[in-house]
Amino acid sequence: MNYYEQMGELTKTNNRIDNRNYHLYKVKRGLRNADGSGVLVGLTTVSSVIGYQKVDEELVPMPGHLYYRGIDIADLVQGFEREQRFGFEETVFLLLFGQLPTQSLLEEFHAKLGELRHVRKNFARDVLQTFRTPDIMNALSRSVLTLYGADEDPDNLDVPTQIRQAMDLIAKINTLVPYAYYSIQHGFFNKSLIIHTPDTSLSAAQNFLHLLRPTSEYTDLEAKTLDIALVLHTDHGGGNNSTFTTRVVSSTNTDFYSAIAASLGSLRGPLHGGANIRVAEMMDDLKSKVKNTASDDEVRAYLFKLMQGEAFDRAGKIYGVGHAVYTLSDPRAEILRGYAEKLAKEKGREEEFELYRRVEMLGPDVVREHKNTPDMHISSNVDFYSGFVYDCLGIPREVYTAMFAMARVAGWAAHRVELMSNPGKIMRPAYKSLTKDNPFKPVKERM
Q1: Of residues 168, 255, 330, 383, which has the active-site annotation?
Q2: How far apart are CA 307 and CA 367, in angstroms?
Q3: Euclidean distance between CA atoms 340 and 333, whole angstroms
Q4: Cα(first)–Cα(last) distance of the chain, in Å?
Q5: For residue 31, is it left (φ>0), alpha (ψ between -120 and 50) or beta?
C-alpha cells in the first residue's frame, strides 16, 4: 500500500458517517423528502417538471409534462413540426426572454447567434490543443473560463450584460464542442484535425453537423432530429443538479463564466449527464449476451440479471428506466421515440430500434417484480433514446455529454438571468456536525 492509499484509508475512517444519523437528525438526503419529492428551495418562472400530483400529502402518479415558460413541450414541438422549421433558437429565445418571439425578433435573434458562433483566431490551437485534455467536458470548462479573459466587462452583473454573455456562449459552444472533439482525436489518437468554419446562416443543429462531419453533409431528417433533441434538453426545472449548481454558484454574485463552468462540472458526473452513454453501453452488453434479441423471454432474463447485479456493470440498474420526478411517462422520451423510429428507418436500423422498444416495454415490469413493488409507477426517460439517436447521427459517444451541455447551457443561462433579475440571498443551507469535543494534544503525546 503506497502513501496515498494509506492516507486514503485513514481519511475514510475519520470521515465515516453512520447512515442511521440521517434518519435521527431528519436530514433530507439529496434534498428529497421521504416520499421522494424534492425539497422546495426556490421559485422560478423558467420551466417546470410535472410527474405527479400531491393529494392529501400522497403522491399520485400522472403522465409527465415539461413546460417552458408555461408552454407544454409537446405543444412547442408540434408547432415546429407543423411549420416544418427548426425550433432550438426559438426555444432559447423563449427561455431567456420569457415569451415567444415575433417573426422579425426571431430572425434577428437567429442572425445574432449565427454571427457569435465564430471563436477568435487560433482559439482551437491556443486553448484546445496547447493545453490538451482527453476529456471533452474538461476542455469545454476550460474554454468557458478562457472566454472570461476575452470579455471586456466580465464581472458586470447587470441583466443586459448577462444576456450578452449568455447569447455569446450559447452560440460559441455550438462551435466549441466539435472543435474540442477533433482536437482530442488529433492530439491523443493521431486522427485528422478537422476545423470547419461555422456557417452563420444555419440553425444550431445544422451548423453542428456541418462542423462535426468531415463532408459537412447531412439529411433534413438528421438535422431536424438533432434540433428536437436540443429542444428537449434545453432545460428541466431549477432542481436538476447542474441547473441547481448554476443557481447556487450564481447566488454568490460570481461572474457568468465561473457559474457555467461549475455547471459543466456538475453535468460531467456520470449520475447526471452521462446516463445516455450508460444506456448505449448496456445495450451493447445485452446484444453480446442475448442470443435472440427478438425473444421477450431472453431479453427479460437479461434484464433480471441487470437488476440482480449479475450483468453489465453490476450496479443493479436498468439504465434509462425510471426518473426522480416522472412516473407514468417522460414527455421527452415520448417525443424522441418517434424521431428515433424515423431515423432508424432511414438508417436501416429498424431491428435495433425494436430491441430498444422491447427493453422499454419489459424494463418497468422487471423492476417492479425484482423490487416486489407491484404498484410502483416507472417508465423510460429521455436518456433511453438519446444515445441511440446520437449514434444514428454518427455522433461519437465521447461527445454525448457535451451534446447535453450544448443544449442545457441555454437553460443555465436563463436561470442565471432570472436570478440576477431578482437579487436574493447567498444559498447557505445547514449541516449538522457529528464531531465531539476533541482537545488539542502536543505532537509528542499523539499516538
Answers
A1: 383
A2: 7
A3: 10
A4: 21
A5: left
- Residues 411 and 235: beta-carbon distance below 8 Å: yes
Q: How many CB atoms lie within 10 A of CB 351?
A: 10
| Residue 75 annotated among the catalytic residues of the structure | no
* Contact status, residue 277 vs residue 400, Cβ threshold 8 Å: yes
Which residues, in sequence order, are CB contacts of 438 under 8 Å at separation 6+? none
**For residue 420, which amino acid is it?**
M
| Backbone angle region of 254, left / alpha / beta, with phi > 0 → left and psi within -120 to 50 → alpha | beta
Helix ranges (H only) for 117-255 are: 123, 136-150, 159-189, 204-212, 220-233, 241-250
The closest alpha carbon to 301, from 286, 284, 316, belongs to: 286
Q: For the segment 79-138, what is each residue's pLDDT rounded down to a tens digit?
A: 999 999 999 999 999 999 999 999 999 999 999 999 999 998 888 888 888 888 999 999
> What digits encode the pLDDT tens for the residues 174-226?
999 999 999 999 999 999 999 999 999 999 999 999 999 999 999 999 999 99
* Catalytic site includes residue 323: yes
Task: Give CA–CA dist 69/420, Å, rounded.
Answer: 17
Partners of residue 267 on adjacent β-strands: none
How large is the greatest C-alpha to C-alpha distance in the chain, in angstroms?
A: 79
- Among candidate residues 279, 423, 428, 430, the one with its CA nearest the CA of residue 359: 279
Say which DSSP state 398 is in.
Answer: G
pLDDT digits (tens, 9 = 90+) for 221-231: 999 999 999 99
- Bridge partners, 53 (sequence order): 60
Catalytic residue among 323, 330, 391, 415: 323
Strands (E), 280-324: none
Distances (CA, A) of 91 to 204, 246, 313, 355, 394: 12, 19, 37, 32, 25
pTM of the model: 0.93
- The pLDDT value recorded for residue 271 is 85
What is the spatial distance between Cα 396 and Cα 387, in angstroms, rounded to a whole number? 10
Determine the Cα–Cα distance for residues 143 and 168; give it in Å rounded to an integer: 13
Residue whose entry in the numeric block shows the C-alpha cell 418497468: 364
